[in-house]
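Changelog note: in this version the structure field was regenerated for every chain. One regenerated record is shown below for reference.
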Amino acid sequence: RSLLMKDVPGLMFLAESAMELGDYGAAEKALQTALFCDSADTARADVYCGLGRCLGIRGDSANAVSLFRKALESDPSHVGALLGLGIACQNLGHFQDAVDALRQATKLQPRNAA
């Protein structure tokens, strides 16, 4: 158990698996655990992005925005966080913020701009 508690990639995999099964509570718990692990900024950004996705899926766009922004503080070029931020801002009716985030994402990954 102590090994799992420090294994950020393992916790991320557990969270992704739980989300695929629709168990967002388990996903959130795994991601919260991952936040307490020592990890690089990129891994921390992935964790915050995953938490933002969980909250966004559950309809909590306001808190999702906050988590996506925390992800971007750790890794300003995190495309997943920019996409999540754009969607969450759109859900809140913050359309200019949504456009700004999505434009930044397409600048970073222009091949995915569909």
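Spot check on this record: DSSP finds seven helices and no strands in the chain. Helices lie at 2-5, 8-20, 24-35, 41-57, 61-74, 79-91, 95-108.
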